[in-house]
Write a structure and sequence with these properties.
alpha+beta; eight-stranded mixed β-sheet; four-stranded antiparallel β-sheet; 11 helices; 35 strands; globular
Amino acid sequence: MPAQSTEFVQLDDGWPELIPTSAFASRTALRSAKLSPDGAHLAVQTTVKGRAKIAIFDAETRDLVETLDVGRGDWMNWFRWAGPNRILYSIDGNGFSTSRRYLMTGQWTTSLMVYDRPSKATHFIGFKEQGFEGDDVLYTDPAGEYVILSLSLKVGLDPDVYRYPLDGSGANKAVRVQKRRKGIDEWWADNKGVVRIGMRWQNHSKLAFFYRGSAEEDWIEVAKVNKHERDEVDNWDFLSIRAGTDTGYALVRDETGRKVLREFDYRTGTSGAIVYSHPSRDIRGVQVDSEGVLIAATYEDDAPRTHWFDPDLKNTQSQLEAALGAGRVRLSPVAGTERMIVRHGDANDPGAMYIFTPSQRNLDLFSEYRPDVDFQQLADVRVITYTARDGTPIEGYLTLPKGKPKPESNGKYPLILLPHGGPYGIRDSLIYNDEVQLLANRGYAVLQPNFRGSGGYGEAFEELGNGQIGRKMQDDLDDAMDWAVAEGHVDPGRVCVVGGSYGGFAALWAVIRNPERYRCAASWAGVTDFDEQLKHDRDYFTRRAGRRWRKRVEGEQTILDLDDFSPAKQVARLTRPVLLAHGTSDRVVPFAQFTAFKDAAEEHGKPIETLVIRREGHGFSSKSNERRWYDALEAFLADHNPTDRPPPPEKDETDGSGGIKRVDEL
């Protein structure tokens, strides 16, 4: 890694110099980077002063060519290249259609846009009046001339499929290539853009799949699946279908409940040979080229991993790992060009992004992810396992500070339990985390348990969390604390819980449920009233997804009162300090969840500390907002769970990158 612009020194007591919160508060600067199909340009998604932008660079010189201002920072969902000179991107909202008038439930819409680089023009892709989902792209023409788009003409109608031009000629030149069929609300196309598969819900209990071998064939029903039979449904978790054949790839659960990659025959609805499996982890996805040839499979053990089927890419991965040294190397190849994006980093190294041209043996540094964070000052993170009280093995990650506690602390650190969000299907990994390293730099041990319900460990482990929010899932956090205490790492009298989203709920519930264990709790965007949250979720989920989510929360229990574990309803029991923080524009966990807890706390005479960030969403759209959370968290923990390291300086003005490209300043 290149030398840092800011020098950090180690103090006499073994502690590294305090890294300012401003150095950590930059994770939103470089969200996504994609090479154009010809490898000539690199597009980078970033957020500057609360506005989403796509910056386009010359991939060879790394010079900034142009910047596209998308709009408000939380608008953009994704972007991709459409040929070498156009960029597709999806935004939230309805500024380009009139469908908002249908939104009696408050459900948000998505709109599809295209930016044409030669003309510098931006066009809306869709119709003046259309349904909620405007960005369901089934296929993108490699030359960038058109997309195949599934789109409803009105809210409540099943979608048609259109061949929609990207040259700005608009809806008048769109051609319907597949007429809607009653009940089919999802379509899939093959790798040449031909619509080949449709899915229909029947009587809220069956999934029917329809198939055709080519555009000239009639549709036939090839399978009917009971939605309650998970194995049957998962057999149709298909990833691709090859033009001119009836086969493709699907993720199918094996006899142990883990997802494996298999060939799949869509005409018969049967899976074929196993292409790749991992002995203990789910396969999460695949990469295929434009011809449908399998390039790689991805999975996650302690960190995201890639299994390369392409021998040249496998060899490139090995060579770069040897050249870059300790840490993890991730390749992002682009079909049709040898140039690729390379990312390198580790749990104790924010890492950097490079542009690699194999034929030239040229690895150019594009940007460090945290230019002001000296990775040599960061703490090591290690994998741990413990056994929950009911015998369930749990995996997690423990980060211990570099410095040593004071003698009166008997070599023990204060602990921060940091449960992840989600909670289902999500997990923590052995990757760099700003919040973890910030807390470790301040002198805290940090423990991230992948409690039951977390993803990546197979179906059985994930389903252990059904109906266990606030119960066994919370027990797993308590048991993680007990493990750390028993190992001799932490002081049991100095433990706080910090989290965001579901993790924010878990933090609040921890100090209400078990005040004898925890000194304090800090919540960013946490759920405080589950009954109201489920009502809110109905407006954003489809009916079937909403029912599945409620079933996961409630489990198989016939009598369940959500108020029993909703912090806003149980606040009268609160005896510990709480920091409650939220963004006013959060659409995932609405700001009403903040006010519910705050109002209840005031009603019961429970003083709490609060942080409100105006116009912020579920995450952070700007460095300044992210830093406000870190500063508030640091001050709160210093008051209620202080560490043994020297106090932070009164003020810091760290800035600069020593000439390294900073995409957050575009």
